[in-house]
Inverse folding.
């Protein structure tokens, strides 16, 4: 097992753009989850790019020292639970129309936001996603459910 610094550097050598820290990726995951809860308003490309912060955590977890894993696991689990509550499991059918889905163990790729708004909402609705539109958003009212 390796330290955070070692894991960040190892993952950078494996193709990540920088040697991230666990703190940076957890904060990125928290920001994404919060954005989804409020109604993610960026486009599909930004959304799929943002999901990769969770991929980094997944890859890092099997490499990190046990004490780091124990320290961060409760926070990540809480964020995962919030993400699940703010999204709909469609086995990735809507998102797969725009981005090749990674392996089945990366479950966060098989869900889409429950609140469909902005460019992301329009794209996902066009791919058959069903969710809830924000009151001030005109997308997919015919595709929503209460």
């Amino acid at each position: 097992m390796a330290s955070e610094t070692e894991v960040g550097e190892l993952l950078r050598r494996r193709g990540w753009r920088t040697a991230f820290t666990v703190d940076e990726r957890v904060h990125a995951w928290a920001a994404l989850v919060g954005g989804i809860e409020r109604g993610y308003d960026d486009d599909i490309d930004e959304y799929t790019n943002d999901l990769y912060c969770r991929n980094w955590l997944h890859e890092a977890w099997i490499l990190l020292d046990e004490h780091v894993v124990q320290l961060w696991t409760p926070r990540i689990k809480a964020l995962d639970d919030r993400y699940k509550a703010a999204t709909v499991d469609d086995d990735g059918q809507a998102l797969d129309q725009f981005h090749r889905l990674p392996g089945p163990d990366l479950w966060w790729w098989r869900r889409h936001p429950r609140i469909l708004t902005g460019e992301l909402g329009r794209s996902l609705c066009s791919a058959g996603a069903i969710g809830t539109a924000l009151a001030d958003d005109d997308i997919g009212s015919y595709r929503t459910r209460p």
User: Anything to note?
Assistant: The first helix runs from residue 4 to 13. Confidence is low (pLDDT under 50) at residues 139-146.
